Amino acid sequence: MSREGHSSSYQRLAGTRSLQEILEIATEFERTARDFYTALAPRVSKRIRWLVEELADEEQAHFDLFDGLIKRMDLAEHIADRIATPASDHRFSDAIHLPDLGENPDDQAVLQYAMGREHAAMDQYGALAESVEPEELRALFRFLANEETEHKRELEARYYEIVHSGGV
Questions:
Q1: 2 located within any domain
Q2: Does residue 114 belong to any structural domain of this protein?
Q3: 145 in a structural domain
Q4: Number of domains in the chain
Q5: How many Cβ atoms from other residues are within 10 Å of residue 117's Cβ?
Q6: What would the 3-class secondary structure string for 13-61 be?
Q7: How far apart are alpha carbons 28 and 34 in whole angstroms?
Q8: pLDDT in tens, 62-77
Q9: Residue 62 sits in a domain of what CATH number?
Q10: pLDDT single digits (tens) 55-109
């Protein structure tokens, strides 16, 4: 084998993750968000508390989806499949690291963080929907990308209402 072929193979492999790694990262992304929003809810203003509690519930549902997928035996044959790492992967992985919003976080900071997180998930799940197999996983990532898009729209509307209508 020539060095050139080896280098090319290494570069292709370096730009991929196994399906198991992708599912584990997504599970951790959703877990950290759930825990963050759950801990944050009692510290935010009453004006957005319901929204933060709703975000925690949504993240729990996504966590349950990914956790269940990792354990499914019918996906075992695909768990080692290599999947191209989406360009959005660094933003998605970085979102696992949570900000310190202080003891009394303001509504604007909470909403900005939540919108950024939803955007990162929307991009990541959308990109994965284009590259994963089998079709059942494609459909799941499409569903999640659409759901994150809707969450982002809702947060943007709430942000506009609170920030631009004199709420903050």
A1: no
A2: yes
A3: yes
A4: 1
A5: 27
A6: HHCEEEHHHHHHHHHHHHHHHHHHHHHHHHHCCHHHHHHHHHHHHHHHH
A7: 10
A8: 999 888 887 876 776 7
A9: 1.20.1260.10
A10: 999 999 999 988 888 787 677 677 777 877 777 767 777 777 778 888 889 999 9
